[in-house]
Amino acid sequence: MGNNDMIVGARLEEYREKLNLTHEDLAIKLGVSHSQVRNYQKGRQPVPEKIIIKLANGNEMLEAFLRGLPGITLDDVEL
Q1: Does residue 1 surpass a pLDDT of 70?
Q2: 17, 22, 28, 60: which has the fewest C-beta neighbours closer than 10 Å?
């Protein structure tokens, strides 16, 4: 588990909480198990590229945020 995996996982968790989604809600949206969502959030497994793209849905700022790019906060993203 790399440092970037932990950053991306933390941002995924922040995104989920901002939208008031449960682990189960997000898991259903992504087509994965709720335990997989938790593994992503804890940095135990890297968030796959296809998950980031699916969540961002063309929103470049959200994609940059989810990828862990420095200097971008969730407040910068129009949801």
Answers
A1: no
A2: 60
